[in-house]
Amino acid sequence: MSFSVGIVGLPNVGKSTLFKALTKREVEIAPYPFTTIRPNVGMVAVPDERLYKIAQVIKPKKITPTVIEFIDIAGLVKGAHQGEGLGNQFLGEIRKCDAILEVVRAFDDPKVENVSGKIDPEHDIEIIKIELELKDLESKERENLLSKKPIVYLLNTDGKTLYQKPKVEHLTINLKEELEISELSEKDRNELGLKSQLDQVILACYNKLDLITFFTVAGGEEVRAWTVKRGTKAPEAGRKVHSDFEEKFIRAEVVNWQKLVEAGGWDKAKEKGLIRTVGRDYLVNDGDVIEFKI
Length: 294
Ligand SMILES: Nc1nc2c(ncn2[C@@H]2O[C@H](COP(=O)(O)OP(=O)(O)OP(=O)(O)O)[C@@H](O)[C@H]2O)c(=O)[nH]1
Ligand SMILES: [Mg+2]
Prior knowledge:
Blueprint: E1 4-8, H1 15-23, E2 40-45, H2 49-58, E3 62-64, E4 67-72, H3 87-95, E5 99-106, H4 121-138, E6 151-157, E7 170-173, H5 175-182, H6 186-192, H7 198-208, E8 211-216, E9 222-229, H8 234-241, H9 245-248, E10 251-256, H10 257-263, H11 266-271, E11 276-278, E12 288-293
Parallel strand pairs: 1-4, 1-5, 3-9, 5-6, 6-7
Antiparallel strand pairs: 2-4, 8-9, 10-11, 10-12
Helix pairs in contact: 1-5, 2-10
Bound molecules: guanosine-5'-triphosphate and magnesium ion.
């Protein structure tokens, strides 16, 4: 099971545009509100240079990045908690997500209806916040409260429209441009000198969720990255790799990825005494390369 991020925001702010740029999946994007009704779901690889550096010394047949699931949800409007717009459906979808990526409109385009009536990120952020809080008031469960989910704010700008910056920490991106960049070949992108900022969006979600990455090398067959919450113990991390591993866990061999790369591979790291044997209580660190022993 991967961690999931729900793309949330008012209608027509660019949620599906972001989803398409992230996942390269065909989704409906249109200049009218409530284009998205059924949520779009897609897996996105978490960018990580370390994976490729490890692969240089391990020389595996296969390299597999870790993924986060992104869910493009229907737009929310004021009154959604009472079922306004596609309110209840929308809020139910958010409940299933581990974090929220909120897209906020900071672009002006007369062809794209602005349900908010003005470009005012602070105001739009407030609408969503209130809707989530009102929905929480109705909820009997205290776990999984919507308004307590970690949120990454993304302002969708066109680079020319003026707006008041919101108080919250946020990323600023031109999503229309990002979609265009994502549709170019790598060659064209390099020739035109265009750089995508989407990696920053993915990593911002990853960090907001307090996730860390560990790696496995499968005896040299496959270098693969895996995601766990910070504070996860080795047996539970093992379960990510194989459902049996938690129960059958005996010990694990661990080396920091950089030490492994510097040593020039697993066997050489072992010769140098860089590989440690750890037990059930070992807390996995970001960047650990782990061999589970069952
Ligand atoms: N000018 C401009 N238009 C944009 C930008 N981002 C998205 N759009 C346009 O805005 C419209 C709505 O984009 P979508 O991605 O469908 O928006 P959404 O938030 O998914 O909308 P709903 O699913 O209806 O809630 C489309 O016509 C997009 O092309 C942008 O940065 N600038
Ligand atoms: Mg949409």
